[in-house]
Amino acid sequence: MNLSRMIRLSCLAVLSLPLLLVQGQQEAPKQKAEKILKGFKEDLNFKKPVKDILESLKTLEELADELHRGRPASDIALMLMHPDPAVRSQAANTIAAIGALPDTAYRYNRILTDRLKYEKDPEVRIAVLLALSRTGPHAKPVVPKLLEALKDPDVRIRRAAAAVFRKSIGCEEQLIPAAISALDDPDLGADQKYPGLSSVSFIAMTYLRFCGRDAKAAAPNLIKIFKSDKANENYRFSALYTLAVVAPEERLSLDTARAWLKRSESAERLRVALGVLAELGSHAKEAIPDLIPLAKKPLRDPLVEQSLKLSIVHVFQRMGPAAKEALPTLEMMAKTDDLTVRRAVLEALEAVRGK
């Protein structure tokens, strides 16, 4: 048996590891995989003979083809019907790991989606949904299933469904209203130390920011979250930031950011305010009189001062020509000895001057 075939069979054996573990196999899957791949790592080295490098590369190519187009796909799919839910969960993870290529992802996604029709175990359903989230834009055909899962009574399944469109799917017409509805989900997330930051609604905010102005209908829900006492302050900051992205014309983002700039007793609120103003772009023009004194203010800590100035310069840059009132301030800032700040200021000057 030649080296290529031996390695191929060894690698295919790795795909059976979930079953072996169930049956009491002692060696961890990661250790087995590392042992199998060790030879490749040693051969893929400029110091090795060309024939050894070529042999390893060709073998890896064969293995990739075998995994993506060969018999293992059917064998692994069969494991989605295994009586043990741990095996079914691992089978979903394995399919996701090897199936996210343009010419095979659709096939694997159909296998995973079909499993959702019949799967009752919540842990397996979560694994299948998370597996779908790893297949990139190829998960689009499963949007109807995601909409169903977002209404599941099990909050863990709702989080997994939300993760699919957060990670992989573009701004689908059906998903934006679903994400907006998800903002009202009562879930506070799994992390009790940071309530809200792993919740269904937080995941929905991430997706809505990605969609930008297409998601402007989310504004009322985001305003409600920011004005509420739900979760913690950072969660509500995220709602404000998302509002600035999807609906920059809403006054709440600008007015809140300006108020925080004037008080600036909280470094965290100051950071959020500058981030919000940057997202508002030209809509942040009214904040220029608040930003100019901050840009000129010397601080004891040079690193903190540099960070603050870079953030302010970035806000001016995002405003573009609307920030012409800040040109004298930017020109003064360009005289700094700090090369990092100077470079950022020069870029901002170009944007503000419309060049």
Q: Can you walk me through this structure?
A:
This protein is mostly helical and 355 residues long. Among the domains are: 1-70, no CATH class; 266-355. Helix content is 68%, strand content 0%. The protein is built from 20 helices and no strands. The protein has helices at 3-14, 17-22, 29-43, 50-69, 72-79, 85-98, 105-118, 122-133, 143-149, 155-167, 175-182, 200-211, 219-227, 233-246, 251-263, 267-280, 288-296, 302-319, 327-333, 339-353. The radius of gyration is 26 Å and the shape is globular. The termini are far apart.
Secondary structure elements and pairings:
Layout: H1 3-14, H2 17-22, H3 29-43, H4 50-69, H5 72-79, H6 85-98, H7 105-118, H8 122-133, H9 143-149, H10 155-167, H11 175-182, H12 200-211, H13 219-227, H14 233-246, H15 251-263, H16 267-280, H17 288-296, H18 302-319, H19 327-333, H20 339-353
Helix pairs in contact: 1-3, 1-4, 5-6, 6-8, 7-8, 8-10, 9-10, 10-12, 11-12, 12-14, 13-14, 14-16, 15-16, 16-18, 17-18, 18-20, 19-20
What's a concise summary of this model?
68% of the residues lie in helices and 0% in strands. It is mostly helical. Among the domains are: 1-70, no CATH class; 266-355.
